[in-house]
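Form 7-S
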Amino acid sequence: MTKLTKTQTIILSAGAQRPENIALPLPKGLAGAAAKMAVTKMIEHGWLQEVDADLRRNDPLWRETGDGHGTTLIVTDAGLLAIGIEPVVVKTVVALREHAAKAANPKPPSQRAGTKQAQIIALLQRPEGATIAEIVEATAWQAHSARGLISGVLKKKLGLVVGSTKEDGRGSVYRIS
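Output:
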């Protein structure tokens, strides 16, 4: 294993834990000439690499290039190996984190206009609501399909609050509240 200073170890370890192995921000107290010297030595060893910063993604800047662009620092595979981390492990962990983030923020279900589901939602949003018989008549579905749509799709998948009341002469009337 490569002999690293405490500062180098901190920079590489922190970068290994960040998305895309970005090494910035540097540790507190490391600034100016000391930061430049430490980073230059790490670049010479191949542990850090200076790359164009993506300003749209708000990548932290190491230095400005003068033309409205800047650079940032990333930990290389050699830098990961220097602190005893296999690059494949880091890439796998990053992929797992990205997958977990996508799963935690699923895209809400969208409603297409002109479908039978949209027709039923419109019926249930009326002040008078709709009975299963009215839904069956409007969609040509069977009663169990209409009830399944209400309990499965509208309530569980779309998260709509569908209530029912018994009314004289109509039976159970369903409404979206």
